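re: ur question from the group chat, yeah i did fold both. here u go
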Amino acid sequence: MFARTLRRMKAFRRFARARRGSAAVEFALVLMPFFLLTFGLAEVAMVGFAQTSLDFAVSETARQIRTGQAQTNGGSEAQIRRQLCSELNSFIVMGCDGNLFLDVRRFTSFTDASNSAWNPVQNNQFSAQGMGYQPGQPSDIVVVRAYYRWKVMTPLFEPIFENVSGGERILVSTMMFRNEPF
């Protein structure tokens, strides 16, 4: 029995001195944090790029309302939504059907507009109830809000990036302005 224990000790010492597999072991230890960092960075970059695309699309589409082109040309909510979707998809392909929501409201003063903090996210759920389309008349104060339902791409990061249940993040872009005298 002593001889067998001695052989095991020699084998353990020989294993401890061996350097042939150390690079593989070190790589295995670094691999998981490296991939977590890489996928997390990619997820943050995609969300940021989608948010920037949404901001640009809202800016370009709200210009139609601010200058009165949407009102004088009889632009309906569906036409403004299509234009918003078209602008949104000019940089990154984002599916608008069922994911893009538009809320255009007219206010009598900037104070009323800033105090109307209506939030469509209630109880960790997104609800499009109460959204409307009121582009207003000349010199009216208008707030244009667009909401996009973004699906988190990496399931491991869903608890970190989601702000509604179901592994989704609601991206929001808002513009407040006074309509030009058209």
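okk and heres the other one u asked abt
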Amino acid sequence: MTKDTRMPYLNIIVFQIAIAFVCFSSPLLLIHATWAKPLNETQINSYIQKLKNPQQRSAAIDYLATVGKPAVPALIKALQDSDAQVRASAAIIIGKIGPAAAQSAPVLLRTIGDKDATVRAYAVEAIKKIGRRAYVPYLIAGLDSKNAWERYSTAHALRGMGKDAAYAVPALMKKLDDKDAWMRVNVVSALANIGQPSVPAIPGLIARLQDTDETVRHTAAYALGNIGLSLQENLNQVSKKELDIAVSGLETALKVLQNPSLKFNQQEITFVSNPLSVLKKEMLRRKKSAIVHF
């Protein structure tokens, strides 16, 4: 394998590693920065330049951290500086700023693959401190990447975030008809793991029960059952609208699953029918309670 052919492959690996840290890092939401008097762009850039000087670096890091969000655009540029000390310092400051530095997410995800080990380490810490939810809007953009593995990895990352990725549900729903079967599998799996917030996706998932790809069909059955189970586990937090959509949708899904020609197994049928039974009982209970109180 030549150097030229290795680079795209290495970029994919780096992207997947970055995604893994977003999925499994603790959603720390502590903001260490306080707000200083706003600086203009020229003043902020003067402090960025001080990051190159070992004698001035520590004070510049502390001060830019107190500036907070207004300093983030300059810090994003600093993450791409030719000087590793500047890149590392920028990552440290972004970590101190925390969730308010969320706009640095795309560059920070790439920085986790930096050639310098110190820069990589501080980038990982910054990702943790920004918090996982802050990355969702930037991960959504990855669903439309021209690189297939980046699309798969993004969907897989959203899957790993569970309910924290609720904001991505509408974008994932648009990908249920993706021409790439493996992308459909990953999208369906992500919706399954997000759980209750994926209720609006139930009609689209029912359609995938008759997908041309067998893996997509079986993953869709799992997804519908998992969404039903998440509702079952949080009945007190399920709205009437969610309950209506779920019961109606799962009843339709069950009829599809019981179609012998589609060859779904009994375990898949049970995985959908069990939460459906609980949700129907909850619907009946609510109706009776409404009549009594009326």
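fwiw on the second one: Residues 195-293 form one domain. Residues 35 and 294 are 54 Å apart (CA to CA). idk if thats what u expected
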